[in-house]
Write a structure and sequence with these properties.
Blueprint lengths: L1 E10 H11 L1 H7 L2 H8 L4 H19 L12 E5 L5 E5 L1 H9 L4 E8 L3 E9 L2
Antiparallel strand pairs: 1-5, 2-3, 4-5
Helix pairs in contact: 1-4, 3-4
Amino acid sequence: MICGIGIDLVENSRLERIIEKWGLKFLKRIYSASEIQYCGKHMQSSTHYGARFAAKESFLKALGIGIGMGVNLKDIEVVRDKNGKPALALCGEAKAQIEKRKITKIHLSLTHTKKYATALVVLETK
């Protein structure tokens, strides 16, 4: 049964300006080391950072909470399987929220263009 849906849209140029201003200080506060490595190897890294930021926001929206409501964004990590399909790996309070709500499945879809990045998260229970 679906128990939560979240969607987010990121304007990549806005994120790019934040990264230019704050650099690694910002990136290390929001993204895991693996996410920084993955995004950093792409020519248009801001589109990949944008998609991951949108995924983190979408996850929080699916839970019905927002940034600053107890879940650290670094506790929500976008990973990829061997075929490149994105998924969320959770730890800390993000994982605790999933366990508390008995969520059994997390669906994630990402898309991005030069200007925008979007993510959709669907949470399921049995």
